[in-house]
Amino acid sequence: AVGVRNVIPRQSDIAAPDALAGEQFDRAWLVTVLGEIPDRQAALRNVYRLLRPGGVLSITEIFPDPHYQRRATVLRLGREAGFIPTQRWGAALAFTQNFVRPDGAEQADGHA
Fold this sequence. Notes:
globular, 4-stranded mixed sheet
């Protein structure tokens, strides 16, 4: 509606691994939603599959969301899904944590 031409929004069930073709997105955002997903690990593995190598996942959590996820939990879940943590903004009760899907040059432990 505002003339943006380089963004194509998609909506899908994050737990349905075959709902969208893999490796087609550059970025994904989960804003105050991670704690409401029943199988968080499966959802993050699916986001990993959907992102292109080098793609970025941003997870934002804000307290007092009743399903607030602590940063340590977000980091653990992201790493377990294969992501490498990168930038973080905010403080303990309101933060955004970015992750990158390795492009092959990076290792899962975050070292190039």
